[in-house]
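Here we describe the complex-level prediction in full. Unlike the single-chain runs in Section 2.1, the two entities below were treated as one system.
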Amino acid sequence: MLHEEQTLGKVYDGRLMRRLLAYLAPYKMRVVISFVLVLAASALKLVGPILTKIVIDDYIAVGNLSGLSTIAAIYILALVLQFVVSYFQIYIMNMAGQRVLADMRGEIFSHLQKLQSSFFDRNPVGRLVTRVTTDVDALNELFTSGVVTIFGDIFMLLGIMGVLVYLDWKLALVTFAVLPALFVVTMIFKRRIRVVYRKVRTRVAMLNAFIQENIVGMQVVQLFGQEERKFGQYSELNRQHTEANIESILHYSIFYPVVEVLSAVAIGLIVWYGGGQLLLGTLTLGGFVAFIQYSEKFFRPISDLSEKFNILQGAMASSERIFTLLDTEVEIKTPAHIIAPGRDDGSIRFDNVSFAYEGEDWVLKDVDLTVRPGETVAVVGHTGAGKSTLTGLLMRLYDVQKGQVVVGGVDVRDWDLKKLRRQFGMVLQDVHLFSGTIASNIRLGDQTISNEAIAEAARIVNLDKWVATLPRGLDEKVAERGASMSAGQKQLVSFARALVHDPKILILDEATSNVDTHTEILVREALERLLENRTSIVIAHRLSTIQRADRIVVLHKGRVREVGTHQELLAERGIYYRLYQLQYKDQEIETPV
Amino acid sequence: MSRLFPYIARYPKPMVFGMLALVLTKAASVLTPQVLRMTIDDLTVAVSMQKLAFYASAIVALAVFGGFFRFWMRRLLIGVSRRVEYDLRGDYFEHLQTLSSSFYQRWRTGDLMSRAANDISAVRMVVGPGIMYTAETLIVTVGALGFMFAISWKLTLIALAVLPLISYVVKKFGSAIHKRFMAIQEKMSDISALTQENLSGTRVVKAYVQEDNQRDLFADENEDYYARIMRLVKLSGAFHPLLASLIGIGTALVLWWGGAMVVNGEITLGELVAFFAYLNMLSWPMIALGWVVNIYQRGAASMKRIAVVLDEEPALQDGPERFEAPVSGRIEFRDVSFSYTGNGNGARVLRDIDLVIEPGQTVAFVGRTGSGKSTLTRLVARLYDVTDGAILVDGHDVRRLSLKALRSVVGFVPQESFLFSESVGDNIAFGRAEATDNQIAEAAALAGLDGDIADFPESYATMVGERGITLSGGQRQRATIARALLVDPPILILDDVLSAVDTETEERILFQLSSVMKSRTTLLVSHRISTVKGADQICVLDEGQIVERGTHDHLIKQEGLYASLYEKQLLEEELDRI
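The structure predicted for the assembly as a whole is:
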């Protein structure tokens, strides 16, 4: 995991950048306004030295005090304006940038909703969550300040150059003499620091990967008494990491002083050449001071450059990960043309179905099975026989490799996906509860389901007595993932959930977890009512459920090996007979049938 | 934060010289406006080109002087921070190595990692940029203010008239911004929780066609987040422009008042210009102040988080005793009880275990999941300490033995077959780095891994893990067995280590291992009866107690738990064959 998170992005990637900037398109107006405002703010920042020049030349030099307050007032006005303009610029740019980030989060989340189950089998949830949170966050500065301030800085530099030329073009040219040197120094620094930065990142990644591995494997290290050797290896990585960082310090500690000296050279040139001009009378004293003040403003944006670099690099790495996720193809979706809609009679047919999660590792092989409307079928088999896979294929969580799964007379791949899945109600072993109330967990966002229907369902599945003990009844909040609820209670909630949605076909993966006898009776009763009047496929762990089923299907190593009733299959003395002894027989003794 | 001082104190020389360099470089920058002052004052009267050239070179000379010390300032002060980081990382890792399994059970890897990565970095920021900028700010403020007062105390007071306003703004905005920032963090954790919940319930979401509904829920949270961010921007967006403008107003006032003072002859024009330069110097510390405070706050919080780990006492104390060679491998459990919580309150995983294992014996432990059989063997390697009773190896209580000595005689192969991202060969030689290629190959052969390794692209040099090939579960298990065998320990513990290979392979490997097992004490945990059939003694555990013991034949005759487990095993094997 660490390796992927720390892959080394490029500092700048045009393709990624274009794709990122495309997100700003809907907010063009905001960006344009913000752009105009940033130009205005930059222009206002140039006012100070000019006013200083005027004060010196037109007032101090001639000893005139009367208009001085007006100049000060103009200056303050400019400052107030600068504040107002900058503020709106920042606010409006955020209105665009933050919108873009919100849009991206929404897009990633929506895309995740569409992706197939096999994608989630491969990608840990924690990593996907960081795509929505941390990775989008890393683009924050790029969108809210980066793009526009770079233009603002460039504009200010150009503005300063313009004013200097206007004041005294000869002196301006002399001052600019340091610019080529500055340019060269910055380029060298940029190239060097990029190499070092890359080195640092690689070594940080190696160091972190090493710690991670050693924390996970600490027991092994300790058992074999290898602490010292591992510490030696660690120290070596730690040393390399520190060295790379110290190397980067070297570059910074050369770059900043060099920029400073160059800036001093510029001022020195102004003093020497500008002073000369002044003596010749071509430059005023105020102009001289203004020159010096401008040249000081000139160098700050340039030394900030390195910081903008880091922001850019972080943004590139994150956006690469985000786009990789967004580019993951949705493999399971509604076909473009629905030829004939399926019937909602609850009939099911597996036609020679083979399925593998990966390659040729067949989990199901040549499965043929027909379930008539209203029938209850119990699927039994040893661990890894392919029972859960079978139900996953019905709802098209995965697509088969061979054969076809037919629901309501139509191949599931030709169904409208949503309509297909609405045919089913699913109850899983691990009941997943969402944050919200008990009622909202039963309703699951279907606002057409009335409160009465929920209360009725709760009553039918024997949830009512427990709910009555809660202060807020069905509107009681569900603590984090139902932490405050017992396994049996959660089970009953998921029964109620299935019941209110009144599916044509019920898929039930019975829980194996032990519940007390009282709850067991409640669950069994509820189950009885749930199975009534609908096609049901039950991955059965309770003997009672199996005995109640119309037919039992024995799945073994991915194949349907036996089909029949409990008594028939026992009599066959085949796989079921052995499974019965292995898994179900004990229940006859433990619980009354 | 006081925890940090000893680390910094280790580098007194670079720290002192770095500070000295800092003072000198700042002195140079504070002196520069003085040259300007003289230049301008001379220019108002009359000056020769030579004098101008002198001033110009003085400015450049000051910059070179300042630059030279600036170089050393960064190099020394930031360098110290990197060395402190290095030391801190080393101490952190070294301490982790002393902590035992119970610690790693309580702490999540991700949490320990984030302390190693993020928190140590945050602490470094305090030592490096934090200290450096604080000192810089201090010296510039003192120097600039000093010169400003020297020029005119009246003008200085006027310039600083906005100061109360600035500190008011900083304080007021600071706390409000912090509050709104926290509100954003809260919402972000909501978004994160919602996403987490949605993704871990993806099957239910799909089955009940909840995608659109979930998307709407997410959109609501997302909009709320946007609204909260914009509430923050409304404040924070004003903060810096406001500061800049307030500082600017100081300048405007100086321009006005100072201009008059020049005309009245109270100060010279050069002094006014120098005054501007000093005022400009002061604006940076004011802006940096908030940033530095932030670095300190984060660093202090991070140091606390690191200290929590560093203060964690190793649960296992090293003992003084060593074995008198040669080790026979006799193990004795005396009335052993154990709970993972360490005190008597937790659920007892083992209760009243009494057992003697003679040198050279092979003893097997079977039982249902959670019966305590793995725990029992972990106690022999002293991964945990017993809650009651004692375990003796060769007559020594394991708690009195040096951990190193004990573990060098116990070859423990745990259930989770963990391998390092090294080559297969290095992994096998993990406990004995000096082993020859032949010895490694021999161990691999004993564990039945040699055939697999021959098929690997680079044989024994093939890398394992993300940068190499992915081994199957069975291959990993055999590699960990080979790793233990190479050490040739007098006591070998195999904790369900062949669960991922099929029965046939298992039998073949067990046959190969039988010669190894004969010559040493072996503890064997398995959920497969076929594995343990040949053991000298089989102990059946149930709910933390040994409920049956004896040889295979003896136990079958008893028709107890072992017999029924065996029966089920046979059925499963039958099912497997069908």
